[in-house]
Amino acid sequence: MGDIQEQIKDIEDVLAKTPHHKATDHFIGRMRARIARLKDQQIETTLKKGGGGGGGYAVKKHGDATIVLVGPPSVGKSTLINNLTNAQSKVAEYSFTTVSVIPGMLEYKGARFQILDVPGLIEGAKEGKGKGREVLSIVRNADLIILMTDIYKVDIIKILERELYEAGLRINKEKPDVKVDKKIDGGLHVFSNIKQEFDKETIKEVAREIGIKNADITIKEKLSLERLIDAFNKNRIYIPALYVINKADLARRSLKGRTNYLYISANKNTGIEILKEKIWEALNFATVYLVEPNEEPSFNHPIITKKGVTLKQLAEKIGTNFAEGKKKAKIWGTGAKFASQEVSLKTQIQDGMQVRFV
Ligand SMILES: Nc1nc2c(ncn2[C@@H]2O[C@H](COP(=O)(O)OP(=O)(O)OP(=O)(O)O)[C@@H](O)[C@H]2O)c(=O)[nH]1
Ligand SMILES: [Mg+2]
Questions:
Q1: CB of 268 sitting under 6 A from ligand 1
Q2: pLDDT for res 112
């Protein structure tokens, strides 16, 4: 590990001395990609050391989605899981009270969310500080991160974000819209209908550096060099996150922060219902209400699904004679322009929509 760290440092030193202009673009791209590759080797070591194997860290996924509580020690992660679920995770004033993974199940609107309470995450996690490696390998397998701190340590969020970033996690970001179609030979071909900041040769240099030698590369968004490197990297994980600030009950002044921070008090039970709703939204869950052929619209037959699913996919999922052979649907409520609107099965469902297949 030390070795890799030194190599990275050496390249960074060279880069710091390299002037930025057209002629050095390729070189800079290649060097940044090389750093990314070296960091990737570190991530792989981290995963090998942190994944599986005893200590309560190999957790099976249960329920409709898995959520992990990530934050520094003593901010109230265990208090929160005890509030949200049936779990009984130990709570205490001192740091590193939680030393293994404690699962709990939250039922909300008919969906079942597995929540994982893990040891506190501190700077240097990927080098194994605290239970960093183990925590990071759990985080990589989650469907949603709750990034949590308390009102005294709001600045720590930035450090945690960096730790997660360095571990290959990309929070609240879409996967780069880049298709890499690998070939056996023929070299690299780059297609982009959007003008990029760097030329095609730089893109190829970066790809080669990461080990892609023969491929058609199709780019459909304007990329930063960082995102270009990410696009070629298998180890990147794109995962949604919610930002939660706990112990709001102890604040002396009214709390102001970034609008995407949710202030709660896990042990005074404030903000918890909003948090559950935010979890539901962040995971893209939706409830659709089926309306029987001869029934008035009602909320009697709820079905849990994901946003963006079409009525056709929903029909396939239900698989009963409800929808079989039906070509259209009538909808009410969310998404309907008016009651009993007739729509095609290509229509995407929305949270709260009532549907009768006709
Ligand atoms: N005032 C107040 N105290 C809280 C709140 N939530 C948790 N605490 C207290 O904060 C301390 C730490 O809580 P824990 O739930 O053990 O924190 P943790 O994040 O799980 O800590 P580690 O397991 O050590 O990482 C305990 O003394 C809790 O009683 C809250 O909303 N308000
Ligand atoms: Mg704890």
A1: yes
A2: 94
348 falls in which pLDDT band (50, 70, 90)?
Answer: very high
Give the separation between CA 103 and CA 61, rounded to whole angstroms: 10
The whole-angstrom separation of Cα 7 and Cα 282 is 39
Would you state the pLDDT for residue 2? 60
Per-residue pLDDT tens for 243-281?
Answer: 999 999 998 877 777 778 999 999 999 999 999 999 999
Percent of the chain with pLDDT over 70: 93
Q: Which residue has the tokens 């996919």?
A: 313
Q: Does ligand 1 come within 6 angstroms of the Cβ of 145? A: no
Contact 124, 94 (CB under 8 A): no
Type of residue numbered 335: G
| CA of 153 relative to ligand 1 center, distance in Å | 13
Domains of the chain: 2-50+176-231 (no CATH), 65-122+143-173+237-282 (3.40.50.300), 285-357 (3.10.20.30)
| From 94, 131, 267, mutation site for ligand 1 pocket: most ligand atoms within 8 A of C-beta | 267
CA distance 53 to 162: 26
Query: Is the distance from the beta carbon of residue 95 to the nearest atom of ligand 1 less than 6 Å?
Result: yes
Q: Whose CA is nearest to atom 32 of ligand 1?
A: 247
- Cα torsion angle, 119, 122, 128, 130, sign: negative
Q: Would you state the structure tokens that stand for residue 200, as one six-digit string?
A: 């095609």
CB contact set of 1 (below 8 Å; sequence gap of 6+):
42, 45, 127
